[in-house]
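Response to reviewer comment R2.3. The reviewers asked that we include at least one raw input/output pair. We reproduce the pair for Acyl-CoA dehydrogenase family protein here without editing.
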Amino acid sequence: MWRKAVDPLDRVQGIPSAAPAFGRGGFGLPECPPDLAELRERVAAFVRERVMPAEPVLDAGGPAARAELRRLQEEAKEAGLWALPLPVELGGQGLPLSRYAHLAEAEGASDHGPAALGSAPLLDVSMLGRHATAPVQERCLRRIAAGELRICYAMTEPDTPGTDPALTATRAEPGADGTWTLHGRKWFITGAGEADLVTVMARTGDDPSDLSLFLVPTSAPGFRVVRELPVLGVGGQWEIELDGITVPADHLVGERGTALRIAGERLRLGRILRCLRWLGQAERAFDLMCVRARSRTQSSGPLADRQLVQQLVFDALLAIRTTRPLVYEAVARLDAGEDARVETGLAKVAAARMLQQAADAAIQVHGAAGLGPDTALPGLFRMGRAARLLDGPDELHIASVARRVLRAYDNVTS
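Raw output as returned:
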């Protein structure tokens, strides 16, 4: 883990650390609704001034991290910034995706921002709100939204391609009393080591598509955390074993055999949320790079005067500006209930590449300091590299988008 980052804005005359988080680099933000502009800046300030300084503790995990996260969550509630996109009836503020998108970038500038501000459970709350049984909704939804219950999602498995869920080996067997018993392993599950509930995809029949989702308490007999799986040296992902876990009938999420459809809904929203947050992280890397270029002076002058540094700045800015319209086009289509599969695929690949490019350029301008513990850049670069695999590798989205586009030309002759 790296130590608390020194905010470089504190060291550059004329750019105070309280400067707005957005707009300094000319990122070409889409027009924010006037009634959201002040809220967006409050979110950005909360992440910049409270969440980012706490990142070293939050990254380390354990009891200290849990206590720090609870403190930040209480502060977010007191500041009126809690659970912005979650339903009002569950204690959230009910912002639709088209409006929340303008705030998600600011939240996502820190990987811990969504959890600190209470928006991290959005995917689970949306999925369970649409598909869970009434008893499960009554027992769990409000507590998940309040941050009292921690939940994660388990789909991928060791030795099974994550892009081919038809090969899922985890099984759920029905009992005579309506219960289900689960056997199998899952891995690369975010937050499983500290979760209270996990939604598990399991096979419920011999047909490749006969897959179902189950809500499993991690306190149930037969649940075991196998190991933590460091990603490029940092933890947070886990492997779990389900050894004969029995859950009641009402823990089936949706109808039997509908897991792929429900997972598709979840993934489409999840990919867009990731893209928005990656934009925020890319902007953070860009800011760090530009401040470094202006403040770092060699015997021949500041780094900002070097053409190769100017090239890195230009290319990173170009990547951010050309990615943003793709992301917001996908947001608009998804929010309108339209087919957004092409737009989501384009946005996901572009945003992953953009984040890795911006973080890499910032590291290059920092030199050895960009590899060390005194900036957020190693974490941003790590996320950029992982982004090209998360929620489906680039190759999956490239092939899927290309096939859909080419099908439109089936009856066109040259």
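Strands lie at 151-154, 171-174, 180-190, 197-203, 211-217, 223-228, 237-247, 252-253, 297-298, 301-302. The mean pLDDT is 91. Further pairs are available on request from the corresponding author.
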